[in-house]
Write a structure and sequence with these properties.
heterodimer, A: 274 residues, mainly alpha, globular, B: alpha/beta, Rossmann fold, Alpha-Beta Plaits, six-stranded mixed beta sheet, four-stranded antiparallel beta sheet, 13 strands, 31% helix, 28% strand
Chain lengths: 274, 307
Amino acid sequence: MKGLRLSTVWTLTRHDLYYAMRSARGLLFLVFFAVFWLWLFSKMVGGAAQWLSNPDGNMLIGWLFDPQIARSLFINRAPTLSAFFLLAVSTMPVFVLFAASDQTANDIGSKYLRFLTPRCNRLEIYLARFIGAVLLVAMAYVAVTLVATLISLFVDQSGKGSLLIDAVLVMVSLIVYSLPFIALMSLCSVVVGSAGLSALVGISVYVVVLLVVAILGYRMAGAAEVVGYLLPNATKPWILQLQWSTWIQAVLMVPLFVLGYGYIGWRIFSKRDI
Amino acid sequence: MSQPIISTRHLSKTFGQTQALIGIDLSIAKGTTTGLVGPNGAGKTTLFSLLCGYLKPSQGEVEMMGHAPNSPAIRGRFSILPQDASLLKNLSVGKQLMMLAELQGFDNQQATAESKRVLKAVNLIESYNQTPERLSHGMQKRVAIAQAFIGDPEVILLDEPTAGLDPNTTDAIKSVIRQLSKSKTIIITSHNLEVIEDLCEQIIILKKGRLHSHQAVSELTDRTRALTFRLESDPPADVANIFSQLAVVTEVKLGQPGQHRMVVKYEAEQHAMAEIEIIKCLAEANIAYREMIRGERLQDTVADQTR
């Protein structure tokens, strides 16, 4: 941490966010994200999610995910907000792997980092790009959570107080859940020279480990469970329950993933030629 | 030599099986303008990148102002013009320079003023609000040069500062570099040895990854010890014989076939008369020349040394 200047990290983060809003990569993410959620919200406005509170809907969710998650999310909770949360968590890998794929990758390829390194050190760049990606993803999820909460307020019959508390928990959970994915992309984007390749590496790693877990699961369930912890979505079952007890477990796990992926990425970035 | 501001010890860099640099020991004095030259593949860009901290040495070490190039202690005290780095595509050049100035500690207002100042220095202020995509290659190069002039760096490293620039812009950039060289240490790599000859006091010549020489430019282009002729045609092989009765002539060097070049070296103490005698000899031997310059061209001496 020697030589880390927080003011420089903040300046770099501001610049990164400013550029993300103007670059093709940032705009593409925001457009896809917005279109996807606008489409889903248009369905939810009609109360489509309320069906999930019924025994049939609950059984379907229990079959697709886990009966405990189905009970936790759709019994005594606003179904629209819960459906939003379930969808947001399930689709997060796709959006975050895309949004966070270019933390350093394109700048390594274009050698733009060569303009930065006389002015700031690599650790400052690496941290700032991670924080920039976190803020971009967080802003996007805060915005859609607010919209989902508003729709839920109008559509669902739940108490407003408990719904607002749930909304805050959903918002924080989504941000927390995104952190390991962003850290994984920090690692992927230091090993390649373009954002596209970085996204491809991230998705490939994710899919390959998922396949390994699935194959191992047939014969060695224990080993599959251990390998499964390599994935950034290892906290998903706990996060999805939206219960304080499991939520805290997940929150305690997240720093391990962030530090693990982040440290490996930093080791590579600090030593690589730029 | 005064206190070194940049030094390397046993510096080596390998890329896989290829040894790009081998055991470079250098010491560059504060306040000098130094050219880094050599043929393609000599290791110029590798050495430059190691000095800048872009590459990590395979062996040995680099010190800039007493620190490693990546040390926080020297942030903002040196600036670099990287040869092949691209600016961000979708941001105006003014905004990008402002961002870089902010990273050097300028506040928002100062950064705006500084970005305008450096753009004016490279005659590009009218492009302040344009994105790099809308600029020509030469204009992008000028923006990249402008970022190296931000703030008050003690050391400026310029990789091919005039490559791709038109003659007028080249002159303007050379003039800015010349002005800066009065108070700063500057290192320039360039294939254009006229630029090096024009701007640099010292020259580092690399050959096949090794340090070939590090000496004063004036030692290679001594104006009082040689005359260089560009002839109408290649001189006869025995041209040295026409100077045989001139005791003052010490050496006659011929260029490669097709270069039509001849260098006549003489004793420095008698240079006033020697020049006249040499020209008379040429006239008597009926050898016509198009151009004559005092001293040797740096381009020729470097080419001779690195061949």
